[in-house]
Design goal:
- By secondary structure, this protein is an all-alpha fold.
- It has four helices and no strands.
- The chain has helices spanning about 1-5, 10-35, 40-65, 70-95.
- The longest helix is centred in the last third of the chain and has 27 residues, at about 70-95.
- It starts with a helix and ends with a helix.
Length: about 100
C-alpha cells in the first residue's frame, strides 16, 4: 500500500494517502490488541469499523483515479478477506461463553 500511496498526487498524498495508511496501521493494532486481550470483542468491533472506513477510502482513491483497477482489486480483496476473518472471530467469541 505504501508504494501505491507514494504515486498519489502531492495534494492527496498527505491527505487521503496518510489517512489510508493510518487506518491500515490502526487495523493492525486492533488485531494485535484483540489477540492479547481477555475480551477481544471490543477490539474486533473497532477493527471492523476501521476496515469499513478503509474500504471507502480505497474506493474513493480509485474513483478519483489515484489507484488503478488492479491495485484497487487487490486491496479490496485483502480488506474483504480480513473482514471475513474478523467477523468469524467475533462470531466464535460470542458463541464461546454460551
Amino acid at each position: 500500500m505504501i508504494p501505491a500511496v507514494e504515486k498519489f498526487p502531492r495534494s492527496q498524498k498527505f491527505l487521503l494517502g496518510d489517512r489510508m495508511q493510518t487506518l491500515a496501521l490502526d487495523v493492525q493494532e486492533s488485531l494485535i490488541e484483540a489477540t492479547y486481550s481477555k475480551n477481544p470483542a471490543s477490539h474486533l468491533l473497532t477493527c471492523n469499523l476501521r476496515l469499513e472506513k478503509l474500504r471507502f477510502l480505497f474506493r474513493l482513491a480509485m474513483d478519483l483515479r489515484y489507484l488503478d483497477l488492479t491495485r484497487y482489486e487487490f486491496a479490496a480483496r485483502a480488506i474483504d478477506e480480513t473482514g471475513r476473518l474478523v467477523g468469524g472471530w467475533l462470531k466464535a467469541n460470542r458463541a464461546a461463553p454460551a
